[in-house]
Amino acid sequence: MGKEKKKPYTTTWNNICWSIRGQLKYSRVALFMQILFIPLNVGLAWTGIYLPSLVVAEVTGGAGFSHAAYTVGIWMFAILCATLIWNVLDYYVHTLDQIYTCKVRDMLYEKAMGLFYQCYEKKKMGDLFWRAERTTLRWNGEEPVADMTWHVRKFLESVICYALFGTVVSFVSPWILLLLTLAPAVNWFCVRAYQKWEYANRGKWGELDRKLYYVQRKTEEFTSAKDIRVYGMAGWMRQMYKLLCEEHSVWDKKRLWKSYFSRIADLFVILLRDGAAYALLISMVRKGEISAEQFVLYFAAISSFATWIGNILDGWNKMRGTSLLLCDLREYLEYPDPEGAGSMDGAGKFTPFDLKGRAPDIIFDHVSFRYEGAKNDVLHDICLTLHSGEKLAIVGVNGAGKSTLVKLLCGLYEPTDGKIRIVYADGGDNRKTISVCHIPRREYYKLFSVVFQKVNQMFFSIAETVSGCGEDECDIMRAKECIKRAGLSQKLDLLPDGIHTKLDKQVNEGGIELSGGEMQKLMLARALYKDAPVLILDEPTAALDPIAESRIYEEYQNMTRGKSSLFISHRLASTRFCDRILYMEGGKIMEEGTHDSLLAAGGEYAKLYEIQSCWYQEKGEE
Predict the structure, then answer these.
(1) How far is CA 134 from CA 108, 138, 139, 210, 329, in A?
(2) Is the CB of residue 499 less than 8 Å from the CB of residue 463?
(3) What is the DSSP annotation of 450-490?
(4) Positive/negative CA dihedral, 609, 613, 619, 622
(5) What is the DSSP letter of 184?
(6) What would the pLDDT profile of 496-553 be if each residue is shown by its tens digit?
């Protein structure tokens, strides 16, 4: 694992301002209620040291019982009212804070879903997201996103009480005031050193937490449950979880011990500080320099004053500690993710290209791609044009670079070298060329309907899955037609709720689980529903039976009418219906032509086809 950055993403003050701006924007009432806490808590704190001295004064001053009871009763009633108000404010602030937390969490997930895919799939971004997400969740009683304004408010309360109680303490001795002020600095430096260590090693806990969550989640999934039972993996999974827990425990012990030692010095400072202050007060009483009620007032003031100094330092450390956690959130939310400059008009706005109902030509101009940290290119010097309306097939063995090429074509990756351009007709005979890097990704994604090799079932209804939107926005008749064309209408007819049936029975009561082949058909229906100019099928029949596969091929001509299409398959017999075939090996295009011309050439494509055809023949003979 690489070294963590030592320098935080931004400053504590910057994160404080960011949190306050966010609260003002999304939960203003909660912030105003937080402000009301300040005079309320300061008043209650002052009452806490003044009331005991008042009682002593009433008792020793010779006033009658009724006068003392009345005076103390008024103060007790005021404290009761203030406490009731405090509890109401505390309840509503915690409730309203969740609005702000949910909004920040929504911003985080929006960023994750819109982040450039090439960045999103990197491990370092996954680790950063995990740490960022934790700031929006409550762990060990802390929720950093909501806690920052609480820490700021408590810090301000401590500063005000420091000034208020410090004035009282100064009447005893300015030297005591200085001693009580400087002594906690030792603890401040110790806690600061611990926070630096914790921040520098935060990735250790993040990675372990992520692995623990991954193992736990896998034991809950239906797809994993079959393997766990059939292959007897339960013991191995438990052992893996145990080892991760033990490793996590080791780091937890380190963290606890360092936190413990960081506070030991504070215990000795408190003993020295408070002992000196109390010894001075006792001496002043014995000399008759202060009265009994003054002793009680000063004693309480010194005790509270020491607390407020500690609270000031603790508040600052908490603000700084929370800020360090928010740095991960801010770094993820503000991660540079340019959408592309696009074709700009005079006002500096992107002008969408008009395809006039036709798919554009897509040109790979000496395109190479290399994954971050890899020594060699996955794709090297690819020169390729997908012509408008062409049916292109790409074949090759595993690892040839086919799926990477699809991701480049769809704009999920950016080339390491070379350019990808689109050429389209701009009315009449005029043709325009735009580099893909100059097109906002959301505009570019509109060009493609894709059925990827690996698909994940979500918990939406079938109608929502096909349309990619809520059922109130879905064209139900169109969705049913696409499902029919994809060969899934028979399954739909058997479902009690039909197209409104929910997927994923782990989430939805009455939900269903589709087989691999059914899921591929559903994804094909989704691609047909989008009806984009370019249709990409990445191993679309891998999970289908031969009959269903044959039907998909028969429907392929209708699916691709008026569109460009890219078909990726390991089964070379399925590429006959394509206009052109590319055979890839080692990240390069090795052969190109029609099915018949490639067979006649007798190259690697022909050899691979012969091997596969023999297998089909042998299987048929059996």
Answers:
(1) 11, 8, 8, 11, 9
(2) yes
(3) EE-SS----SSBHHHHHHTS-TTT--HHHHHHHHHHTT-HH
(4) negative
(5) T
(6) 888 888 887 777 777 788 887 788 888 888 888 998 899 998 876 665 665 666 666 6
Contact between 276 and 284 (Cβ < 8 Å): no
The residue written with tokens 């292959």 in the block is 231
Output Rg (C-alpha) for the chain, integer angstroms: 35
Question: What does pTM read for this prediction?
Answer: 0.74
Distance of alpha carbon 95 from alpha carbon 75, whole angstroms? 30
Nearest Cα to 57, choosing from 301, 297, 299, 303? 297
Task: List helix spans (H) across 173-233.
Answer: 174-182, 185-200, 202-220, 222-230
> For 118-172, how does the pLDDT look when each residue is reduced to its tens digit (9 = 90+)?
888 888 888 899 889 989 988 777 889 999 999 999 999 989 988 887 787 777 7
Position 490: which residue type?
Q
Three-state secondary structure of 390-453: CEEEEEECCCCCHHHHHHHHCCCCCCCEEEEEEEEECCCCCEEEEEHHHCCHHHHHCCEEEECC
Count other C-beta atoms under 10 Å from residue 39's C-beta.
Answer: 12
As a dihedral over the C-alpha atoms of residue 245, residue 251, residue 252, residue 257, rounded to 10 degrees, the angle is 150
Average pLDDT, the chain: 80
